[in-house]
Design a protein that fits this description.
heterodimer; A: alpha/beta; 8-stranded mixed β-sheet; 3-stranded mixed β-sheet; 10 helices; 11 strands; B: mainly alpha; globular
Chain lengths: ~280, ~120
């Protein structure tokens, strides 16, 4: 049977993708940030996951407002990155795990999550930056390795009404049940990407709420999740900014792993671009 | 359940992008979505007004495009994820876009981010 070996939450800030493309990992202003992923790399080497289920939000690459699904699940053989319009270099495609995708789709719909299924889906920085952070190794030719297959799960954080925190956490629980009933022996890691508090638009652009960020990270790390599930999505905008609602992906990630999985690693970095950055590992 | 009335906005300095905004900004956002394609970015640069016309962007929003008035576009239904692609054509980064809306310098904006997250 498949099983979830652990979960990782991480920022997906485009500037991190640029830093990776430029090879700035050892530059003074970046070194401590990239070094903080070393414990996650060590853990990944020890558990050797086969598949990463990546919960994130699209930023206007694959989805437009003509059709905006609340929850979408990828079911493609591979996921192609593409030009997002503002200069982030395009990276090579990521392999999908179609059998697991369709099992997730069957299981989620049976569980009353009426998701959108996508046999083609471009993936933006919300997906590519976390994978580059977690699996940075290159082969002898200098090509970035793609050691895990992937299943993207996209949450709408673009257009209100957004799914609520409690709904996203329940989606995560349903993802957990789906993986546990997949017959093949697979080691699965669940990623939740985005955050922390930030706001790109309006007179409040540049809003950051560090106490709220740290409270959320503590609540998610310790599975004291009820503190966060009482919020509405509008409350999240108020407390974490319009784009801070990306916290929803972290809540789905938390829901996918059992309460016995606790925070094994956590790092917080002051403003990287318009938001602070963080990485968290949940494992038995 | 979220019982905030449709189109109501009670978070200071924040325009929640809901159906009310989405209707106002649809043409504008559709044009900005097209900027994922480099050829479309070039077409916009060659003749901004003609490109806006192709997408039937309303006059007030066209004026705001001309003035590089990000805040006016956001208020009038522009969604920042799509507007970011337009800002990219202008060579503006997210700190510059933020500073423009706040009415402060990029340097002051960066300092603010640093202090908030320290």
């Amino acid at each position: 049977m498949a099983r979830i070996v652990g979960a990782v939450a991480t920022s997906h800030i485009p500037l991190i993708g640029k830093a990776i493309a430029m090879g700035w990992q050892n530059e003074p202003q970046w070194k401590s940030f990239f070094d903080s992923y070393a414990p996650v790399h060590e853990w990944l080497r020890s558990v050797q996951p086969d598949v990463a289920i990546v919960v994130y939000n699209d930023h206007g690459l694959n989805f437009f407002l003509d059709k905006m699904p609340t929850f979408a699940v990828g079911a493609a053989p591979e996921y192609v990155n593409a030009d997002e319009g503002w200069g982030l270099p395009v990276v090579k495609p990521f392999p999908g795990h179609q059998e697991l995708s369709w099992h997730l789709i069957e299981s989620l719909v049976a569980d009353e999550f009426d998701i959108t299924t996508c046999q083609e889906m471009t993936v933006d920085h919300g997906f590519t930056v976390p994978l580059a952070l977690l699996w940075p190794s290159k082969d002898d030719q200098g090509n970035v390795a793609r050691p895990v297959k992937t299943v993207p799960i996209v949450l709408n954080t673009v257009q209100f009404p957004l799914p609520s925190p409690v709904r996203c956490h329940k989606l995560g629980e349903a993802i957990g049940r789906a993986v546990a009933s997949f017959p093949e022996d697979l080691r699965v890691v669940v990623l939740g990407t985005g955050g922390l508090s930030h706001q790109l638009e309006g007179e409040r652009a540049g809003f950051i709420n560090k106490p709220f960020d740290l409270m959320c990270c503590d609540a998610i790390g310790s599975d004291d999740i009820d503190r966060l599930l009482r919020y509405s999505s509008r409350d999240l905008v108020r407390e974490a900014g319009s784009q801070g609602v990306e916290l929803l992906a972290w809540l789905a990630m938390r829901g996918a792993v059992s309460g016995s999985m606790k925070r094994k690693h956590f790092a917080y970095h002051g403003a990287v671009s318009n938001t602070a950055a963080a990485v968290m590992l949940l494992a038995p | 359940m979220d019982t905030t009335p449709f189109g109501h906005d009670d978070i200071p300095g924040t325009i929640v992008f809901d159906g009310h905004q989405a209707m106002k900004g649809y043409a504008l956002n559709k044009m900005c979505f097209s900027f994922n394609d480099a050829a479309n970015r070039e077409a916009f640069k060659r003749d901004e007004d003609a490109y806006c016309g192709k997408f039937r962007v309303p006059p007030a929003q066209r004026d705001a495009i001309k003035r590089r008035d990000v805040l006016a576009l956001v208020r009038d239904g522009g969604n920042i994820y799509y507007l970011a692609k337009w800002a990219g054509i202008l060579g503006l980064n997210v700190q510059q876009v933020g500073a423009l809306q706040r009415g402060i310098t990029e340097e002051a904006f960066r300092l603010m981010l640093k202090e908030e997250s320290a």
